[in-house]
Amino acid sequence: MGSDGLKIGVIGAGAWGTALARLLASSGNSVQLWCREPETAKNILQKHVNTSFLPDILLPESLGASTDLLEIVRNSRILAAAPPSHLTREIAKKIRPEITAEHILLILSKGIEQHSLALMSEIFAEELDNLPKLAVLSGPTFAREVALDLPSAAVLACADETAGSLLQKCFHSDHFRIYRSTDLVGVQLGGSIKNVIAIASGIADGMQLGLNARAALICRGVAEMSRLGTAMGGSAETFMGMSGIGDLVLTATGNLSRNHNLGEKLGQGFSLEDCLPSGGEVAEGVRNAVSIQELAERHKIEMPICNAVYQVLHQGVSCTQALQKLLERDRPDEEMYVPDLATIPD
């Protein structure tokens, strides 16, 4: 259901940004979609289709599109930011001149910035001087299925009750169910770590290790996600929900998952260069693997699956070697381990 025709700006005309812009416009909101490429904006305005990412899905005629980012920010109360995670800081710097304390900024990107190891919310808070109210949307949502109005659900994390309630009202619909949370850290970490575990699942499938191995990887992936997430201040319950196990199961098994598809090709023996998506799409797990490896080292958290993926992607270890290292680890004593935060150094 729309929220009294609110003016909403969606930043990023990839598949996810376009799908949510379509959903919002279809609900009666005034929506402008920022496109980096003039040709994309032209196609949306004239043909009502995003030929680059969702070429066979018709968009509402009411959906606007523009390459003028600052104008969209200036004329919108709610902003939904969906750039690739590595471009988040660049976007934040660009929109800073028009951001006010009246804005609500919903983060749609999933990732952790390399080197700084900042979450997307931390980047926006830093670059925008904590002016807008920040929120995060994450969960098991393939953009194409949302754009096709297939039943989907996600979690919206926001510390501000009024802003969170308004965003839920905007995005919730008969076919897109929105749950609420206040755990911005946990929701973001779940959405980032699952990309790396999805690559591991794809590798297992590519090596034809069987469904037992895939299920075990997913289960142990949740354990790794929970260990790091709670060490960084997230709630253990978050990783059992939409943005944790929900998003992980989808991304680690679905044939629309770029991360799983990349891993599957790696498992079949292709080089990383040959596995990377084409056409402007991004497999976030490739970059996330570096940041998660560094976060695990910083917080002294054991994450063997994520470490194995990091070694395959960035240290030249073969999939077979990585698998052997995992199998040679000491016998486990307990199934799930969440660290005692009191024992972790600041």
TrEMBL record:
GO terms for cellular component: cytosol. NADPH binds at residues 16, 36, 110, 143, 258, 282, 284. Pathway: Membrane lipid metabolism; glycerophospholipid metabolism. Belongs to the NAD-dependent glycerol-3-phosphate dehydrogenase family. One of its GO terms (molecular function) is glycerol-3-phosphate dehydrogenase (NADP+) activity. Its EC number is 1.1.1.94. NCBIfam families: PRK00094.1-2, PRK00094.1-4. Substrate binds at residues 110, 258-259. It is an enzyme of class 1 (oxidoreductase). It comes from the Bacteria. Transmembrane segments: none annotated. Residues 183-323 form the Glycerol-3-phosphate dehydrogenase NAD-dependent C-terminal domain. It catalyses: sn-glycerol 3-phosphate + NADP(+) = dihydroxyacetone phosphate + NADPH + H(+); sn-glycerol 3-phosphate + NAD(+) = dihydroxyacetone phosphate + NADH + H(+). Sn-glycerol 3-phosphate binds at residues 110, 139, 141, 194, 247, 257-259. Residues 7-162 form the Glycerol-3-phosphate dehydrogenase NAD-dependent N-terminal domain. NAD(+) binds at residues 12-17, 143, 258. This is Glycerol-3-phosphate dehydrogenase [NAD(P)+]. PROSITE patterns: NAD_G3PDH. Catalyzes the reduction of the glycolytic intermediate dihydroxyacetone phosphate (DHAP) to sn-glycerol 3-phosphate (G3P), the key precursor for phospholipid synthesis. The active site is at 194 (proton acceptor). One of its GO terms (biological process) is glycerol-3-phosphate catabolic process. Keywords: Cytoplasm, Lipid biosynthesis, Lipid metabolism, NAD, NADP, Nucleotide-binding, Oxidoreductase, Phospholipid biosynthesis, Phospholipid metabolism.
